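Lecture 7 notes: from sequence to structure.

We start with a single chain of 549 residues. Read the sequence below before looking at the structure.
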Amino acid sequence: MSVKNLARAAILAMPPYKSARSLYQGSEDTVYLDANECAYEPYIGSMGNNRYPAKQPKGAVEALCRLYDVSSRNLILTRGADEAIDLLVRAFCDARKDQVIICPPTFPMYAQAATIQGAGMINVPLVADFALDVDGIKTSATPTTKIIFICSPNNPTGNVIPVEVIVELCEFFKGKSLVVVDETYIEYAKTKTCIGIISKYPNLVVLRTISKAYAAAGVRAGGAIADAEIIELLIKIQAPYPIPQPVAREIETILEPKNRKKLEEKLGSTINRRDLCLPRLEKLADVEKVFLTTTNYVLVKVKNAAEFVEKCREAGVIIRDQSYQIGLENCVRISIGSDEDMERLFAAVEGREILPIKDDRTSCTVRKTKETAIEVKINLDKQNPVLVATGIGFYDHMLEQIARHGGFSLQLSCEGDLEIDPHHTVEDCAIALGTALKQALGDKRGIGRYGFVVPMDESLCEVAIDLSGRYYLSFEADFSDQAVGELPVDMVEHIFRSLAENLGMNCHIKVKGENTHHMVEACFKAFGRALGMAIRKDGDNLPSTKGAL
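Now the structure, written as tokens:
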């Protein structure tokens, strides 16, 4: 029996709406007068926002197909996995006739989608250790049960449902019901996905998203992977233009190989941070149990969930009370944030003093051009971490010297057109660093303002700076070599010029010596030392007789 026979008869009989872009997509020089669009963009720099997108944008779909190793015939791109849930219920469940099976405690959207459609719900609660009640699912199903929703890893409990259990259900409900496995958090579990068995079980649907492990919650992109007949049916009832042009472009960018590699590294650090936090949570006086988790969150049973949540909220930390779910009385769900986020959480629940966020001299700057994409994070009142990745090894080392000798935390990453030459990367990183420093300094109250010094072996570098808000650079150096490592020496003055201009700084640098490497390094170390003096905060007075810097 075709899996399509499980769908609503009205949906099968319904002719699909044919949008303009589903009928015809021409080349770049095609004149479109078929969709009542504007012939101009909404603003300078806009790209294609005046035109309706394809229902399933080709580039974005291909990027997801590569990620999941599936054919485009087996994938529908949706607005997060949430839309896929909604489409499945609308396509397969007749109101006041069909039902879905839900296994609480679990993701509430399954129940919401069923309620909106008017479908019935059969609850088969999880059993000991949040395991799936397979026999209960089999005996509770009726001839009009169309969908069984299974979340693996389960939200909010964090445990994985073994693939063998999914196979057993697919076999039992073959020709009767869809088995929908929501793998939203599967990347954190490092376990086997069900995608590989879709060809064997036409009643299996796997939900995926790039909201979690790929850090794209704001993009709203996910999808369903299933038999081609199911995908065809879901596309049929999907809105005419569901995926905005900017979203499609973001999907392609996020899933580029270089970005995927970096995201995999960050995923690993999240897992490590999670594993370090679990024993700390277990030691808290308010905590009764910390449940094992394979996700980027942890379920914790506390003495009083409402009080625990409120204690965190008062400290500016928001966590989720799960007490409304079956079997989760006084349980809270805590997402794994950054190191700083988790320290703030522990300070809150341990009753330690938390400095107001507004007092932090921090900044996060993003600079994006055609040639480079740069992110800079600075905390002037912390010494770590110092992490720089520009793609130019010696330049990384020099920028690290500024931060380490300046005594502040710096995280700078850049993707630039190094295949052409280093110029854009070197210049744009200096611009972004100067901008970030200026933002972190704020109104400059209490800072030293001035700084100076440093010898480096046979080299001597004199640096004097004034964080006056006014730009000026004097740079005196006679380098004998053209480059140190991959850093062109003629760019050194340019680096300090960009820093001075974007930080708003008077800067005088004079270096002499015999070894170009030592001379360049002395410039960066001396500048870092001078900057450290100037940014050091002591009191709250403004170091200016003019009343402003």
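The chain has 17 helices and 22 strands. Keep this in mind for problem set 3.
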